[in-house]
Amino acid sequence: MQAKNYLDGFVQTYFTFPEDEKEQETAVKDINAYFVQNLPVISQGIQRTPSKFEGAVMMSLTDNEATYKVTYSAGEVTTKEVKKGKDTTKQNVVKYHDETTLFTIPYQKVGSAYYISDEPYFSSVPDLQATENQVPTKTWSDSGKTSDSVKKDLDKFTKSLFTAYTTDGDTLKLISRGLSLNKGQEFKSLDQATYESKGDNKYHAVVQITMKNALGTHVENYQFTIEKQKQSYFATDFKHTLPEGKKE
Questions:
Q1: pTM over 0.90
Q2: Were both Cys, which of 57, 100, 106, 208 would link to 192 (CB 3.0–4.6 Å)?
């Protein structure tokens, strides 16, 4: 936690670079203070443009390196001529545009303190969105061959189960194990349900329900086991997911 707090400060300082030249001098001193020593720099091409820190998320942290996903506004400096009376002067104009980058920081710990141990470096942000051919297909079980009368009873139980889930913790404990009372939501409807017999009065249920909260209504998927006990049912082994199927 201490390392993160220290590195968070460095990231914000590094990406905050003002337009005013005197303020830039102060900003450079603030950045260099994190390094403690002056690192060898051969290049003569270092030049900072104005930038505004927007936000950062730490992506990884090891004992000597941290990587952040940083969003910042980068300034593009142009000059324009401005007339003042009979005279014409040049004035810098800065236009900002948003950028996102991965920013990796080498650092070291000495005692209870930290310092930036080498030049940070940038890399492009990878696309974290999986493609269609990388993910398994979600499907409904097509093996729910229960009779109409059994399905009617199981549907009735499932509706009472999710009603209790959002309204009555005492009843919920009597008919299930694995769900906790959730009064922040309201059960609206049972939209789809299949029940596959597993023998010994047990069924594998795959259901989709509609729930309502302050954001509106949304869909939730569940798999669970229903066991008949005398004249009632009991539900266990809840999973918030549909089963995986085969791609066509």
A1: no
A2: 208
